[in-house]
Write a sequence for this structure.
């Protein structure tokens, strides 16, 4: 695939949204869907009786606005709800070799998938087939495996709770826990750290807490592009007197100023300044910063005993304070400054802001979770918050911001390769079959298993695993080694072009489409990043006559696969769940804590909030019932001279691997994505000029030369020594073996690279 050089580059913007936010939302919608469909869908988006945005997992405010969506939400709807469909002749005109040479954007622009297609082994083309034939092929191939563990069942965060629950149920009835998901590649580190220290791997705040806080510290997150409605909550926090500190290697527009397009001030005025302090940290420096902050807090306490720490909370609810205090006593400030690239004065300023604030929220995303020490870094966030009791009270808490609309809900429904025993026990009790107990493979483990020939079949409920995973070259080779790949999808992407010897594409309904089953229109539900569960109802007719919902595809697959076994489909009534999703929710109510009376609660106005011990009552379901302050050994990221640390980033015009346009207007990049952003002083040291074309070589101790070719160098105000290039293209540089401790999340934010003139 030839690298698409940008037509133009400009200095990055210093504010987000504004009038351009409206034009970039409505322009594509009107061009792609026309005025009536656009109005119908955009005015129903994120509304109480509407559908949930299929993009990020930002929560909905109690008081919804008429237009309760952001620019990128509108793009996601336009992308999914296009009336354009992939014509039958497309498959004979485009063999796999041709599809594999196409960009993600071109593949997605071909329209909605509307009929099942099959690529037989030995053939280079997909052919349309009927559903019955598709399920028969699935049953024959999956039952033909030597063991259920030779198959892996991937889930993207778009799947609804109902689809996720029946999917994990089918996979476990099939006999494996191979249930990797997109969370393995994003917030797995969050789940591991919060689960260990607080007992719950989820945010400890609600939407309202942003209105009641005094300080929001935003770490490793670019809300302007990845969670844009968060800017409205930040604007509200500022209006209520809060201050904001942004910690990021890149001066992202959405951290600096917000021109709320739903206000006069935002449309005609200067909007709202967001960050009161911007810390341009070095990649991988966050753990050192957090330790330095906690040390300053402990020093302040030592200087005025009893006046800084929340002793009542610490004594009643935590453990580990003495060990933490002893550990940080010897923290080396010089090492902190080297790791962070910051000054002591900058860190002092943040520490003073923290000490002045009665209520503090820390938010984060991939900029923290995709590092080798991601888990201890997030444990350090917990340390800092616990010292002054910023958990379990209004306006304060830990707030990981999830990037996919139902990635959290899927996990809650059992999509995880290592679900805890109580969940598996409850599932077994509810459905009366022996549930497998051995942990399955995660996303990286799935690719490793394929490469080693252990995993012979992949079934994917949505998503684009081959593009989203690290080490693209190795991943594509591994995929092509499998016997069967199955994609349940709405639109084409690279995972339909890079496939196993045999492949199936099963087209499914989008979230905007009405889901009719035997008992009538069905609602589905999702869980957002603050544990709020709400309903989602499609609003337009399905774009194709034979499309099936995710639930229908999964339950029919289960009946076909399990039904073909000796003894038949077993005790689970799959058909009943397909006919009426209330049946699914009744099962969930008996298996998943917090979902009692699910069918009634999900139909409440705005849905319901899941219980959360640390948030609700400072109850910490950890090994000792206490929140854990932890001691973490700092291992700064080393970068040899003449090399840079590179992070993969998303542009403003993409969502995960879906590329809407080849622009990134907040960062000043237009008409191309083949860029590497580098600080001008680093370019000078490297003897390179803005505009040069380079090959970016990833350096890792396995000696493999991973190369991202033909990138245009863009002089950019990044942190010194740090570079950036777009995901998923730059995944080619991230070794499969480079994963975070404990969570095994790919280390996509600190890749050692060298730039060579192309
Ligand atoms: S903030 Fe996220 S969930 Fe909300 S409309 Fe935008 S993309 Fe969708």
């Amino acid at each position: 695939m030839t690298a698409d050089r940008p037509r133009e580059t400009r200095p990055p913007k210093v504010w987000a949204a504004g009038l351009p936010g409206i034009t970039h939302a409505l322009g594509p919608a009107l061009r792609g869907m026309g005025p009536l469909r656009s109005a119908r869908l955009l005015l129903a988006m994120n509304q109480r009786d509407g559908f949930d945005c299929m993009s990020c997992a930002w929560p909905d405010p109690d008081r919804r606005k008429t237009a309760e969506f952001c620019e990128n939400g509108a793009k996601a709807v336009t992308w999914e709800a296009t009336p354009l469909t992939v014509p039958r002749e497309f498959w004979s005109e485009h063999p796999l070799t041709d599809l594999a040479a196409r960009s993600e954007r071109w593949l997605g622009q071909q329209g909605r998938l509307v009929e099942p297609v099959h690529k037989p082994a030995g053939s280079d083309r997909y052919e349309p087939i009927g559903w019955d034939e598709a399920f028969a092929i699935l049953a024959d191939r999956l039952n033909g495996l030597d063991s259920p563990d030779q198959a892996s069942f991937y889930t993207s965060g778009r799947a609804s709770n109902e689809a996720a629950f029946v999917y994990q149920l089918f996979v476990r009835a099939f006999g494996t826990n191979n249930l990797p998901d997109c969370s393995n590649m994003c917030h797995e580190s969050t789940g591991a750290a919060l689960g260990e220290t607080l007992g719950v791997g989820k945010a400890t705040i609600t939407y309202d807490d942003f209105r009641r806080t005094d300080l929001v510290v935003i770490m490793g997150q670019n809300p302007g592009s990845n969670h844009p409605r968060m800017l409205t909550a930040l604007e509200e926090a500022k209006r209520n007197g809060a201050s904001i500190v942004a910690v990021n290697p890149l001066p992202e527009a959405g951290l600096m100023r917000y021109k709320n397009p739903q206000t006069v001030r935002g449309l005609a005025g200067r909007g709202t300044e967001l960050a009161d302090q911007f810390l341009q940290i070095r990649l991988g420096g966050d753990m050192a910063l957090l330790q330095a902050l906690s040390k300053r807090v402990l020093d302040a306490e030592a200087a005025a005993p009893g006046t800084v720490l929340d002793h009542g909370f610490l004594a009643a609810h935590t453990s580990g304070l003495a060990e933490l205090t002893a550990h940080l006593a010897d923290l080396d400030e010089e090492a902190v400054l080297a790791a962070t690239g910051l000054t002591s004065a900058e860190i002092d300023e943040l520490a003073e802001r923290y000490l002045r604030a009665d209520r503090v929220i820390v938010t984060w995303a991939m900029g923290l979770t995709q590092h080798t020490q991601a888990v201890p870094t997030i444990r350090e966030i917990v340390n800092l918050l616990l010292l002054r009791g910023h958990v379990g009270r209004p306006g304060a808490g830990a707030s990981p911001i999830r990037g996919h609309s139902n990635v959290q809900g899927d996990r809650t429904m059992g999509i995880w390769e290592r679900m805890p025993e109580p969940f598996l026990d409850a599932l077994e009790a509810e459905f009366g079959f022996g549930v497998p107990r051995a942990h399955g493979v995660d996303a990286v483990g799935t690719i490793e298993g394929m490469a080693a020939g252990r995993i012979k079949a992949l079934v994917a409920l949505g998503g684009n695993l081959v593009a989203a995973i690290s080490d693209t070259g190795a991943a594509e080779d591994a995929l092509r080694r499998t016997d069967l790949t199955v994609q349940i999808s709405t639109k084409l992407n690279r995972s339909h072009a890079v496939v196993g010897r045999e492949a199936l594409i099963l087209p499914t309904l989008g979230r905007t489409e009405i889901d009719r089953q035997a008992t009538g229109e069905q609602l589905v539900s999702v869980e957002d990043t603050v544990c709020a569960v709400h309903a989602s109802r499609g609003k337009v007719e399905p774009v194709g006559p034979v499309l099936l919902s995710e639930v229908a595809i999964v339950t029919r697959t289960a009946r076909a696969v399990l039904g073909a076994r000796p003894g038949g489909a077993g005790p689970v009534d799959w058909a009943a769940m397909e006919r009426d999703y209330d049946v699914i929710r009744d099962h969930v109510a008996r298996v998943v804590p917090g979902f009692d009376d699910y069918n009634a609660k999900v139909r409440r106005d705005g849905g319901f909030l899941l219980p959360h011990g640390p948030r609700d009552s400072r109850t910490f379901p950890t090994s000792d019932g206490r929140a854990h302050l932890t001691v973490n050994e700092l291992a700064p990221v080393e970068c040899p001279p003449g090399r840079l640390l590179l992070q993969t980033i998303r542009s403003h015009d993409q969502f995960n691997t879906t590329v809407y346009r080849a622009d990134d207007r907040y960062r000043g990049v237009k008409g191309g994505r083949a860029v590497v952003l580098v600080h001008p002083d680093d370019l000078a040291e490297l003897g390179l000029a803005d505009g040069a074309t380079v090959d970016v070589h990833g350096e890792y101790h396995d000696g493999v030369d991973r190369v991202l070719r033909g990138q245009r160098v863009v002089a950019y105000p990044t942190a010194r020594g740090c570079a950036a290039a777009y995901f998923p293209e730059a995944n080619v540089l991230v070794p499969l073996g480079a994963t975070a401790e404990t969570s095994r999340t790919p280390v996509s934010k600190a890749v050692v690279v060298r730039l060579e003139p192309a």
Notes: The pocket of iron/sulfur cluster is lined by residues 53, 55-56, 58, 69-70, 72-73, 227-229 (CB under 6 Å).
